[in-house]
Amino acid sequence: MAVRTGLSWVGRMAMTCYVLQNLIFYDFGLGLVGKLPAGWNTWGTLAVYVGVALFLVFGSGLRLRRFSRGP
After folding, report:
1. C-alpha distance across the termini of the chain, in Å
2. What is the separation of C-alpha 20 from the centre of its chain, rounded to a whole number of angstroms?
3. How many Cβ atoms from other residues are within 10 Å of residue 10's Cβ?
4. Looking at CB atoms within 10 Å, which of 9, 38, 61, 70 has the fewest?
5. In whole angstroms, how far apart are CA 1 and each of 5, 23, 54?
6. Per-residue pLDDT tens over the stretch 42-69
7. What is the C-alpha separation between 36 and 44, in angstroms, rounded?
């Protein structure tokens, strides 16, 4: 049930989450991809991605408490 709720939040704010994800990870935003240590293995990179994804899910939930859909 919690997964379904989180996915519905992201679905209602899909474009916003997509843009924020790109701004966090790539060079035209925060550039997190370039700041990760070269020695990190797949699990470290996956952990960072999951953390950002959870941030976006909970951020979407906070936004949708006040508004019915994303900007």
Report:
1. 25
2. 7
3. 19
4. 38
5. 6, 29, 16
6. 888 888 889 999 999 999 999 999 998 7
7. 9
The C-alpha atoms of residue 8 and residue 4 are separated, in whole angstroms, by: 6
Helices (H) and strands (E) in the chain, counts: 4, 0
**Predicted TM-score (pTM) above 0.90:** no
17 falls in which pLDDT band (50, 70, 90)? very high
Token readout for 28 is 């035209």
Largest pairwise CA distance in the chain? 43
31, 23 contact by CB (below 8 A): no
Residue 33 has pLDDT above 80, yes or no: no
